[in-house]
Write a structure and sequence with these properties.
- This protein is α/β, with parallel strands linked by helices.
- The chain contains 11 helices and 14 strands.
- The radius of gyration is 29 Å and the shape is elongated.
- It starts with a strand and ends in a 19-residue tail after the last helix.
Length: about 350
């Protein structure tokens, strides 16, 4: 499949998405800088989130509207306050899309309601992303699918039955190009609960491209995902974790994003094919394998022993598999130390 100018698939290097989320800290200048730096680091796309506090929740206290989990990065706030801080002002979007284009990368977003989809369509967003917490929002899925654009959907916090239902809704409403991202909805997530072996299973079940939306620290998990067939990698990105931001604690910094781009491509390059035998690139290295050598001068009539022949490097003598068969045999000629035995001479 294609997303704008990019080919997505196992025959192509991974498509790398830098997720800005709320790491702009309500500064358009910082948001544009994040885009510029992501492009310099080699990312293929920058992803935004398009909502307001009012389109995603209501300003309410009590119950689940309050974040009282002591382990949460956002504890002691209510949802409305969090989304007010984290949202990307809609009036910034046009400048951000232009900045991405000027820097040679794609810009697209996660819409959270119908008005956001319409807004992004007016900006000619090349693809729409569905967040894990929205993948059961069937009205939104229908709206996005009917745009005819490719859809990338995260699979976090979903059982298989609900996920299959959501995929059906997308496809029945016109979605032809779909990428499912394996996702663990913890912030941050741990490698132990990432379960990357799900990736080939998702591909087989839903016959679509599969990738990873990753919230772990570092780049080890995304590299593992690529070796299991992930063709899209999404990671949160910030200029500096020390400067804060709602998602900065589990976001990559610039040097890490560069490494992600390089190492996931290396992981993809390493996949190759099922291969046995000596590759062309290995032929010179055959000389460094072991073979049978004369290690002491041998006279005609001498017996080959462990003292005068050995299995050593380099590899231009007889194969070591003949060594035991040679021991005890009589030499039919003279051999000088350092001679590679070529046959049963």
């Amino acid at each position: 499949m294609k997303i704008a100018k990019y080919n997505i698939g196992q025959d192509y290097k991974p498509f790398i998405i830098a997720e800005m989320s709320g790491n702009h800290n309500q500064s358009l200048e910082r948001a544009l800088k994040i885009i510029e730096v992501a492009a310099k680091c080699g990312a293929d796309a920058i992803k935004l989130q398009t909502y307001t506090a009012d389109t995603i929740t209501i300003n309410q206290r009590g119950g689940l509207f309050d974040i009282d989990d002591p382990t949460s990065l956002w504890k002691n706030r209510n949802l409305y306050e969090l989304y007010q801080e984290a949202h990307t002002p809609w009036e910034w979007h046009e400048a951000m899309f232009k900045c991405a284009a000027d820097n040679g990368i794609l810009c697209f977003s996660t819409p959270f309601d119908d008005t956001a989809v319409d807004f992004l369509e007016n900006l000619n967003s090349p693809v729409h992303k569905i967040a894990s917490f929205e993948n059961n929002h069937h009205p939104l899925l229908k709206k996005v699918a009917r745009t005819g654009k490719p859809v990338i959907m995260s699979t976090g916090a979903s059982d298989l039955a609900n996920l299959a239902e959501s995929v059906d809704v997308l496809r029945q409403n016109g979605c032809k190009d779909l990428v499912l991202l394996k996702c663990t909805s913890n912030y941050p997530a741990s490698p132990e609960n990432s379960n990357m072996r799900t990736i080939p299973h998702l591909r087989e079940l839903f016959n679509c491209e599969v990738g990873l939306s990753d919230h772990t620290m570092g780049i080890g998990v995304p590299c593992a995902a690529v070796t299991l067939g992930a063709t899209v990698i999404e990671k949160h990105f910030c200029l500096s974790r020390a400067e804060g931001g709602v998602d900065s604690a589990f976001s990559l910094e610039p040097d890490e994003l560069k490494s992600l781009v390089i190492e996931t491509e290396r992981a993809w390059q390493s996949l190759g094919m099922v291969q046995y035998g000596v590759q062309e690139s290995e032929k010179k290295s055959l000389l460094f394998k072991r073979s049978i050598y004369v290690v002491k001068d041998i006279e005609m009539g001498d017996v080959f022993t462990e003292d005068n022949i050995r299995v050593i490097r380099p590899g231009d003598g007889m194969s070591p598999k003949y060594y035991e068969g040679l021991l005890g045999k009589i030499s039919k000629r003279l051999f000088q130390k350092g001679y590679p035995l070529k046959n049963l001479e």
